[in-house]
Amino acid sequence: MLTALAVLGGIVLLVVLFLQRGREGIDLSLGGLMRVYLYLASLAGVVVFAVGLAGVVAYVLSAAFGLEVIYGGPRPQIEPAFPVQVCPPGQTCPPFPGPPGTFAPVPDDRLRQQGEDLVRGVTFLVFGGIFWGAHWWARRALSPAPERESLLFRSYLILGTAIFGIATIALLPTGIYQALSFAVVNVPGTFRQGAGEALGGGLAALPIWLIYLWLVQRVLRAPVTRPTTVA
Predict the structure, then answer these.
(1) CA 218 to CA 118: how far, in whole Å?
(2) Of residues 229 and 155, which shows the higher confidence score?
(3) Domain residue spans in the chain?
(4) What are phi and psi of 81, to 5 degrees?
(5) How many Å apart are CA 195 and CA 143, to the nearest integer?
(6) Alpha-carbon distance 125 to 12, whole Å?
(7) Could you say which DSSP state residue 7 is in?
(8) CA geometry: angle 67, 71, 74, nearest 5 deg
(9) Spatial distance between the Cα atoms of 181 and 138, rounded to a whole number of angstroms
(10) Which residues contact 218 (CB under 8 A, 6 or more apart)?
(11) 178 to 33, 72, 184: CA distances (angstroms)
(12) Distance between CA atoms of residues 231 and 124, nearest Å
């Protein structure tokens, strides 16, 4: 979901830039196009970081509250059936293979899923953080003017706030509902879907959304500097 929202946000950012007119019109120079790329790549880095954070959160929650809450109930262990020896009257039955002495249960794939969440989460966290940090440094080096006053920066903040705000309101209530439903309305012997994907994604998107929202409010409170004209 975060990836789809990021792609949609990038398209919206490009549309806004091409429709913008006035003092901050479209800059089709190499430097202007480079700044557009840096902001889009920065947003992509934050999305990758959030995906990794969701995986780590799911692993931590499963270790703290159990595999059932995050990955669902245990898979049913069905013992294979063996044919019953039925022969016609007056005939000798051929030997039938008997059941094995012990039944080997199927390995719990939730343990594999838990390990994959941890590995994926750490990988995406590191890569997303490095990717965002490199593009943040490039933005600061390429923009000597105050960054808060640029259209690109304001559009970047608004899109980040919208993307992670929508992800939070869509995923977090769903994950909380699934976790509470599993704990309160749990029926023995039935399989219920876990809350790992929704709950982990919502908890990962929440702090990032709050950071973007705080940055937007800081830009709104900052005094606007206008260029002075000489009469």
Answers:
(1) 35
(2) 155
(3) 2-16+27-74+109-220
(4) -85, 150
(5) 43
(6) 26
(7) H
(8) 70
(9) 47
(10) none
(11) 44, 10, 10
(12) 55
Contact criterion met (CB below 8 Å) for 52 and 163: no
Residues 6+ apart with CB under 8 A from 84: none
What DSSP line would sit under 129-175, residue for residue? Answer: HHHHHHHHHHHHHH--S-GGGSHHHHHHHHHHHHHHHHHHHHHHHHH
Spatial separation of the C-alpha atoms in residues 36 and 159, rounded to whole Å: 13
In degrees, to the nearest 5, what angle opens at C-alpha 57 toward C-alphas 167 and 208?
A: 40
Q: Which residue has the higher pLDDT, 194 or 24?
A: 194
Which residue is listed with tokens 């219920």? Answer: 192
What does the pLDDT look like over 82-114, one tens digit per residue? 455 556 666 666 665 555 555 455 666 778 888
Confidence at residue 134, expressed as pLDDT on a 0 to 100 scale: 93
**Separation between Cα atoms, residue 170 and residue 175, nearest integer Å:** 9
Tokens linked to 47: 């999305």
Distance (Å, rounded) from C-alpha 49 to C-alpha 57? Answer: 12
55 versus 2: which is more confidently predicted? 55
